[in-house]
Each structure stands twice: as C-alpha cells, then as structure tokens.
Design a protein that fits this description.
Catalytic activity: allantoate + H2O = (S)-ureidoglycolate + urea
Largest sheet: 8 strands, antiparallel
Protein name: Probable allantoicase
Pfam families: Allantoicase
Order of helices and strands: EEEEEEHEEEEEEEEEEEEEEEH
Pathway: Nitrogen metabolism; (S)-allantoin degradation; (S)-ureidoglycolate from allantoate (aminidohydrolase route): step 1/1
Number of helices: 2
Distance between the termini: 30 Å
Radius of gyration: 22 Å
Domain Allantoicase: 16-165, 185-312
Length: 332
C-alpha cells in the first residue's frame, strides 16, 4: 500500500458511507463494498445464489455492457487515493475497473446524480484476482459521491476512498461543535503506540460497540506513558472534554492528562493527571485559550474509546472553513 492509506476512508460504513445504487447484485450485495472489516471468506458456503462472498458480485454479462455502483461518501473531502480490493475473488473478478467522482450539495437521489458533473479519478485499469489495487489520486477538488465501474462484470470485495475530510461549514459555523471529531476534520497526527488499533478511532462518530473500535496501546514496560497528538478541526476554544473508556474494562488507563497547543506551539495544561475509571464516560468542564491541537497522555498505557472536545470555532476559523469549502467546491 502507499502513503495515502493512512488517511481516513471517506466511504467506510462506520463513517456514514452508503452504496445507494448498483446496476446488478445478483450474487452478493453491493453494501458489502463498504464493510469496515477485512474481507472474509468461508469455503463451501453455498446459498440460493451460489458461493457466499463478503463483497459485491454481479451476474455474467452477455450484452457487452459493464456494471457499476454509486456510493455516497460518509464524509465529503479531497480524495488522495482509492483501493479496489478483489480479495477472495479468484475466478470471478472483473478484468478492469475505473472510478469517477462528483460533488453535489444536499441529499441527491440516484436519478439526480445521473445528471451530475462526473470526473474520472481512476482511469480504466487492469485488475488481478484476490489482490488489493492502490491508485493514487490528485484532483484537488471536493468529492461527495463516487461511481465504481467494473468491466465487464464479476466481484469486488472492498472499495476504500482515502482522503482529507473537508467539513461543510454550514454544519459548524455559529454552533458549539466537537473540535476533535473526525467528521469535522480533526486528525491524530502522531502517537506513541498503535499496536492494537488506530488512535483515529477515538475521533469516530457514535459510541464504540466494542474495545476494538477505540484506540488501544500495547502494555508499556518502560518509559512514562502513551500519548496522541490531535490536530483539531479548526482553531477554537474548548469548553467540555469527554474521555470515554466504554468496553475497556481491564485495560483502561489509570489516568490521563490533556494539554492544549496554540498556533505558535505554546502548550497550556488543560487537565492535569485526572483519574479514569474503566468502562465509563468522563466529562469535565473548562475554558481553554484558543488552541489548534491537543496532546492526550494516558498513564501509563491502555485504551480510550472516544475523545470529545466540545467548543467554539474562532471567527477566523469560521471564515477559513467557508473559503476553503467554496474553493474546493468550485475547483479554484
């Protein structure tokens, strides 16, 4: 894989992605394309439609056409790369595939998207069976929907659309928002350890359904503690901190520390070594200075299910978000 795969998957189901239409799904459902887990396979599991696959599989075409799926990204953004994975499809994978993208405001239907201004971001490219194919993308434009085309038919296990989240300012400006939410544009830029799971998991929407859906480090045998550096969605002031250890019953940290960092790199302690309980949501009110990032230290190690930092954007941040959205929306 290439470097872009470290960016969030804008299409994954757990971030709100949805396959809203497909030309055909005779053998396996189109929705499987966006499953968050690694594709699975159990041999000799035959149902009424044949061997069951954890992916999207269409009928054999006899008309000279090709199959396609239409996908609404869970988070709008700038796409930096696409992965088309044919895992477990060995005798029934498509020979080629391509990907198109567009940006449409609101909540368009599949019929309305048919009239959108589509741009090819992955040209028609050859595929191999049972393989993940990584395609770097460099368009510099906002994307809200993608269309996956496969030629002529067959099966694809997963589609990953990695990129930089660009939040719609209409959902942020003038409101109290979660400055640490991935869907608002926040990211973990560095961390001390991600042995069991990615620290970006802390910033996902909703509640963690199990301990694997948070950030968990290896057992620390030396050194002071584990930590993660989070770039906020935009500069702002934090008013409510939530540290959630739900499902982490025997591996929650003993305590945490939160430090705010401003544009000049000045660090300000926000919460100093606060005790944590396992399997619990902890909330703390405060008023921070204007910060652009935070450092979360967990003492000495363990896992955090979710981190929420509720607060207010600065006026300059609101203007910058609006300008960026407009520029990327129109490709300027």
């Amino acid at each position: 894989m290439t470097g872009f795969t470290t960016l969030p998957d804008l299409a994954v189901r757990t971030l709100g992605g949805s396959v809203i239409a497909a030309s055909d799904e005779s053998f396996a459902a189109k929705e499987n394309l966006l499953n968050p887990w690694t594709p699975e396979f159990r041999p000799k599991t035959f149902g009424p439609k044949g061997q069951e696959y954890d992916g999207w599989e269409t009928a054999r075409r006899r008309d000279g056409g090709h199959d396609w799926t239409l996908i609404r990204l869970g988070l709008p953004g700038v796409v930096h790369g696409v992965v088309i994975d044919t895992a477990w499809f060995e005798g029934n994978y498509p020979s080629h595939a391509s990907v198109e993208a567009c940006a449409v405001d609101g909540h368009p239907s599949p019929d309305e998207l048919a009239a959108a201004d589509w741009t090819e971001i992955v040209p028609r490219s050859p595929l191999k069976g049972d393989a993940a194919h990584a395609f770097p993308v460099d368009t510099g434009r906002l994307v809200t929907h993608v269309r996956l085309n496969m030629f002529p038919d067959g099966g694809i296990a997963r589609l990953r659309v990695h990129g930089e989240v660009v939040p719609d300012p209409a959902h942020l400006t003038g409101l109290t928002v979660d400055l640490a939410a991935l869907e608002n544009g926040a990211r973990v830029t560095e961390c001390s350890n991600m042995f069991y799971s990615s620290p970006d998991n802390m910033l996902f929407p909703g509640l963690a359904r199990n301990q694997a859906e948070g950030w968990e480090t290896a057992r620390r045998r030396e050194g002071p503690d584990d930590w993660a550096l989070i770039a906020l969605a935009a500069p702002g002031t934090i008013r409510l901190v939530e540290v959630d250890t739900t499902h982490l019953k025997f591996n929650a940290p003993g305590a945490f520390t939160l430090t705010g960092i401003d544009e000049q790199g000045k660090a300000t302690p926000l919460l100093t070594r606060v005790r944590l309980q396992p399997d619990a949501r902890h909330r703390f009110r405060l008023t921070s200075p204007e910060v652009t990032s935070v450092r979360l230290d967990i003492h000495p190690d363990g896992g955090i299910a979710r981190l929420r930092l509720w607060g207010d954007l600065t006026p300059d941040a609101e203007r910058d978000l609006t300008t960026r959205w407009q520029n990327l929306r129109h490709g300027t």
